Amino acid sequence: MTTSSTPVLTIEDLTVVYEAEHPVTAVRDVSLALHPGEILGLAGESGCGKTTLAYAAARLHRPPARIASGRITFHDRSGEDIDVLGLDDARLRAFRWDKLSMVFQGAMNSLNPVTTVRAQLSDTLRTHRPELSRAQIRERSAAVIERVGVDPARLSSYPHELSGGMRQRVMIAMAMLLEPQVMIMDEPTTALDVVVQRDILREIVRLRDDLGFAVVFITHDLPLLLEISDRIAVMYDGEIVELDTAARLRQEARHPYTRKLLGSFPSLSGERGAFIRTGAEPEERS
Ligand SMILES: Nc1ncnc2c1ncn2[C@@H]1O[C@H](COP(=O)(O)OP(=O)(O)OP(=O)(O)O)[C@@H](O)[C@H]1O
């Protein structure tokens, strides 16, 4: 997918510290530009700071995490530049889900167990789109649930009546509901079995193609990340040490850590997208 030159989100010199007894600088001077419609993969070993960066970008970090310095700017399609770190609580609530949304690992468990899928979707729509009529809310809820491959009859279901895969799809529908320009996905399918993961990932790529939102995608599955990402940022000890297209990283990774990371997957010469397009299993992807 080609990317336009004006980013949708820019992160500049972001530093995030956990103010524990021994403070940990989990994200160090990170700068990043996310372009409209691109899938940016975030790779790196456990503990390198991926989740901290993702949470901070959505301003979802909680104490002891503190943003020590940096700027996050959302370049809205309306032309307005939004200073994300400067938003007050009310504006932040309006910003989240609407402009930028998140799907985290296990997000499916954050669905409210005592309300139906329909009620959860319509609550969000009523809050953020008060101008919509009841009929429009019903229509939109059915359309979004269908888009993520769930039968709209399921709108009347409670979360416990759905499989894990379906619940995670509902969370993706929630994240897409207001047509945000950026979605941050941290291990969105990790808790699911491989076949369901593949179906959902294929769906995410297709939806991105249709709707044009940008995605920051975090997974430990490097082969998968290489296939679905337009560019990959490699993090090491809180810093982004390399950022390039998946193809170029495969051929000419400069940083020793990236080479080590790629070297640990000897069969990574497969054509990008084969897994998503054909559903080939990892061992067939050589
Ligand atoms: N609540 C916390 N208090 C103190 N340190 C923390 C806290 N949460 C995370 N850290 C530290 O911050 C660093 C980055 O953690 P983070 O979870 O962002 O890494 P990650 O790359 O997402 O790891 P994983 O891939 O395992 O999810 C690690 O050193 C971790 O120990």
UniProtKB/TrEMBL annotation:
Stored InterPro entries: AAA+_ATPase, ABC_Ni/Peptide_Import, ABC_transporter-like_ATP-bd, ABC_transporter-like_CS, P-loop_NTPase
Membrane topology, from the record: Peripheral membrane protein
A Pfam family matched in the record: ABC_tran
Boundaries of every ABC transporter domain copy: 9-262
PROSITE patterns per the UniProt record, alphabetical: ABC_TRANSPORTER_1, ABC_TRANSPORTER_2
Compartments in which it is found: Cell membrane
Stored CDD domains: ABC_NikE_OppD_transporters
Domain of life (superkingdom): Bacteria
Keywords, sorted A to Z: ATP-binding, Cell inner membrane, Cell membrane, Membrane, Nucleotide-binding, Translocase, Transport
Keyword Endoplasmic reticulum among record annotations: no
Alphabetical list of PANTHER family matching this protein: ATPASE AAA-TYPE CORE DOMAIN-CONTAINING PROTEIN, OLIGOPEPTIDE TRANSPORT ATP-BINDING PROTEIN APPD
Family the entry assigns: Belongs to the ABC transporter superfamily.
The protein's name: ABC transporter domain-containing protein
Organism: Myceligenerans crystallogenes
